[in-house]
Structure prediction request, 675 residues.
Amino acid sequence: MAAKSYSNPIVKWIEYRLPIFSFLDHELNEYPTPRNLNYWWNFGSLAGIILVIMIATGIVLAMSYTPHVDYAFESVERIMRDVNYGWLLRYIHTNGGSAFFIVVYIHLFRGMYYGSYKAPRELLWIIGVVILLAMMATAFMGYVLPWGQMSFWAATVITNLFSAVPLVGESIVTWLWGGFSVDNPTLNRFYSLHYLLPFVIFALVFVHLWALHVHKSNNPTGVDIKGPQDTIPFHPYYTIKDTFGLGAFMIVFMFFVFFAPNFFGEPDNYIKANPLVTPAHIVPEWYFLPYYAILRAITFDIWFIPAKLIGVAAMFGSILILLFLPWLDRSKVRSATFRPVYKQVFWVFVVDCIILGWVGANTPDAEFHGIKMLWIGQAATFYYFFHIVILIPLISVFETPRALPDSISQAVTPGGKS
Amino acid sequence: MNAMRKRLGLALAVALALGLAAGATMAAEGGKPPAQTWSFDGLFGTYDRAAAQRGFLVYNTVCAACHSLSLVAYRNLDGIGFKDDAIKAIAAAKEVPDGPNDQGEMFNRPGQPADRFARPFANDNAARAANNGALPPDLSLITKARKGGADYIHALMVGYKEPPTGMQMMEGMQYNAYFPGNQIAMLPPLSEGQVEYADGTKATIPQMAHDVSTFLTWAAEPEMEERKRMGVKVLLFLIVLTAMLYALKRQIWTDVH
Prediction:
């Protein structure tokens, strides 16, 4: 850390005992950042900001929420109707969940396109996948709290997945529920964990940033930083670029909060949970639809393994497999810009994920121009794993990448030094 | 970058096409309610006070016989322009259970503005018993709890028809073009001239359907007017701020490009 001298005596006193000022200066001010980051690199900092928004609104909402099966639904409506600006806090929090996933999915696809997961950033990527898993758990349990029909039935369906575990499955489900059905103990523990996990995510984000700051940001060329001519200080260049991106994002986010606050929600969740009435279609929130499609795509037993267990394994596997991406992709070239074949299949993969989401929103029996939804879901599920397990390794070995620039500055500045 | 943008456009177009197709399959569950013109539509929408007050009259004289509105309090009626005296009179006309008193007994008393809307039945079982086994849902959130919202409520009110020939109706059920499954336990609730509007509006079935849908939308989203007013200010502020941030970004980055 650069030894800086501060003139303010209080700053000096603190700095001598805890070098927090030089730390902040080093990591946020002079922090060298590739000069060529495009707007796809805004989504990491955006995700961090949304996390803070979610924690802030969540803490205030918790002050007026009652985690009890008899009162939860009414207490949420009390927030909407009687708490000062309660409707605003709640709509920011519910739409913030959707915003968080949109931003994180773009962040994740950006990493896949530009090869940000490759050496030496494998751990950075793995921590990111763990954050995604923690986010999914948090979002799922948060969705249960309003105790609407979809809350209750989503909780029932998702917790029941664990019954697919051989031998001990049923015991696990009873243990998760704290009883013999989704009931008050389930709601209580989900509330407790929904409050805890965001702070775990916060800690994971800190580790994520720590790992990031060791080898610095990847960039659109995927070429390593070679010297000072390749970088610019984080402040003011990326502080202003991220702030501008935040402004643009907030326009979209606030449009939904104020003018279409229930766009991402299911009408059924404005009906109080009723264990005796099953909704016609149980659908998860949009950000879980692709996984739901994968889960339902497996309708056949393989040998002695029941379909349900394979479906559950495929669903969790679709995310866990991302942990191995740094080793499945053997190409030394990071950025898809210089990988003509990978670049094409990347977009096929994006479309495949969107198709999975669309299939997840429909019933398996629904038809699309005479093709059963189930079959589309099975094909898309097959392609999802085929892309990651077969295509990525094969392409990375057989593809001839285009010539890389010698350095970032050579690539982005006319007549730039290498 | 350009190629990437083009492909992103393609991906979005595919997603959009798929989304529209999904919308088309949804209609099978019951007729898609025709879109009506509402005072609360759009960025600047507000509740038409006269329509909402007429809608309250329809609710109070017709719907309230079976449907509760348990999340709304009488005091909330000032949100659609009822004056304090009118609210007190509306509340006082209802019997509200209270107690126990100092003898340990429950008793009924006239309603007060702070009370939630009185329920027509003591509990769900009583409601079922009086309604041929069907439970009339609480209407506090009905426009948010049904696809189509106010359009759906309006369509349901005017959607009673003779069942198509060959359709086997279950005992005591009515045919409704917009109810999922087309068989609804609720008898046609509205009839011409059923209520007498104080403002002289003719109480036709479509008029009453329109008014009560407006009232129920307000009941479900009483914060909507404040929300949209604030939203316009927030968006204007953000657009100006973001434009200035963009200018600042351009200026700061001039020596990099």
User: Anything to note?
Assistant: The longest helix of chain A spans residues 184-215. The longest strand of chain A covers residues 32-34. Chain A has a mean pLDDT of 95.
